[in-house]
Amino acid sequence: MKLSIGSRLFNAANYAVLSLIGIVTLFPLYYVLVVSFTDSHEFAEKNGFILFPTNWSLAAYEYLFSTSAFINAAAVSTFLATVGTALSLIVTAAMAFSLSRKRLRGRQFMLVAIVITLLFNPGIIPPYLVVKELGLINSVWSLIIPVLTSGWYVILMKSFFDSIPVELEEAAMIDGSTDLGTFFRIVLPLSAPALAAFGLFYAVAYWNTFFSAVLYINDFAKVPLQIVLRNMLVDSSTSTGGSAAVEMISEQQIPTQTIKMAAVVISTLPIVCIYPFLQKHFTKGVMLGSVKG
């Protein structure tokens, strides 16, 4: 179909605007990546503004992985993202599957209770008191248990389980399968798109844990990566994580800016690497609850 001159001009303007937006969006990410690999001497000579370094260096990454503060924080964030995501998916899927079956007693009451949690936020003090009474202060489990599931995710996953035919469950029970066997062997394998989507949401949330760590964690050896990154970005004269780290950046003859950029790259890389593998399931999972004709 031949386009008119007006349509061609309109398409050209769209491409130009979208290209400009893409450049403005991607340039900060590119600059962070480039600076993190820049040699310290070249960074000093060019006063920190580098578009493409001539001398590449891994000194900033080697320094970060040589400090105990950064290693401990990365290990805590990895634990949160793996164990926390797995537990959250199990709890969310179990609750959603139970609520999707009409034979469950008290089903309507539990649904109303879940909706109430979406409408009313208790704030900061009640969760803190609960965590304190449970003895979870200064424990990494305080970053997992209080946010183990989400009412919104339970409702969305319930809508997905509603679309699974009840006949599959009945056939499994006729063959002698228990409720747990049906859940793990039939329901969960059919729910890969939903699990992938919510797993990505949970993983990102756990990996980016910040505010709850500020409230519940006092021991610097147990803080997640985002706390260390925040300390590095806020205080230009600090080491990786503040006073708890003994190795100072100034002693390493590495520009503070390159170490900051390297820390930002490391903190964002895991999620960026995981997303492509979940993309085909993610595009299906985000359609949960949509209107289907």
TrEMBL record:
Record's keyword annotation contains Membrane: yes
Similarity field: Belongs to the binding-protein-dependent transport system permease family.
UniProt protein name: Putative aldouronate transport system permease protein
Protein's membrane topology: Multi-pass membrane protein
Lineage summary: Bacteria, Bacillati, Bacillota, Bacilli, Bacillales
A Pfam cross-reference name: BPD_transp_1
UniProt keyword annotations, A-Z: Cell membrane, Membrane, Transmembrane, Transmembrane helix, Transport
GO cellular component, as recorded: plasma membrane
Principal cellular location given in the protein's record: membrane
Coiled-coil portions: none
Subcellular location: Cell membrane
PANTHER family on file: ABC TRANSPORTER PERMEASE PROTEIN MG189-RELATED-RELATED, POLYGALACTURONAN_RHAMNOGALACTURONAN TRANSPORT SYSTEM PERMEASE PROTEIN YTCP
InterPro entries recorded: MetI-like, MetI-like_sf
Residue ranges constituting the ABC transmembrane type-1 domain according to the UniProt record: 74-278
GO biological process: transmembrane transport
Segments passing through the bilayer: 12-33, 70-97, 109-129, 141-161, 182-207, 258-278
